[in-house]
Amino acid sequence: MNSSIIDRSVIEQLVRGALRQTGSSSSAPATAAAARVANPAGWVDGKPNLRVSISARHCHLTDEHVETLFGPGAVLVPEKDLYQDGFYAAQQTVMVVGPRRRMLGSVRVLGPTRPFSQVELALTDSISLGIDAPVRHSGQIDGTPGCVLVGPVGSVQLDQGVIRAARHVHMNLSDCDYYDVKNGDMMQLKITSPDCSVSFEDVLVRADKAAKLEVHIDTDEGNACNLDAATEVVLKKSGCGCQK
What we know:
EC 2.3.1.222, Phosphate propanoyltransferase, six-stranded mixed beta sheet, 17 strands, Barwin-like endoglucanases, alpha/beta, disordered N terminus, acyltransferase
């Protein structure tokens, strides 16, 4: 009788110990998941860390065009990582040639490669080249003008693909929740700088789960607001009348 009572108490202790171990092991992933939610990519101290970057003229190339411009078997060689993970400025540059042989030398190639080649310019760049480049969001190149790209080995005639990149903001899903926006929405960016404060409308939301909060404006826009001397940058949902 006594031995059976002892055996039962031992069993109960073993069961309780197993339950405690199960509880502690199951809580670890939950804690890690909570930490990930509290600190999404690019967040600092539980809030989005807004970054505004000037996107200077550059181009994107296909694998085929990389080989045509830089030689058979050539691939893009990363020189500097960009703020968005997985993207980089390559060591390679090309010359962009417009009508009447107007040209821009040493235009940086950005990687990785894409399914189609595209050249992104500021307004002053397009005027210099003599190309009437329309304002387009990246990838929307139908009906746009073309140009000639010249590399150290060969050249490529683009029938289309020269654009003035529309201002936009990269953000992840947690950023979207914070600002109450979704992919494709428009936002407003206000940049305060001495005697050069500017509010930019029509900032397109480009949402991706791996993105970090970053607004891209071109060199003309960066010069207009004197971004280097900015004392405050505020991003908010267009038409909401609120400010976060």
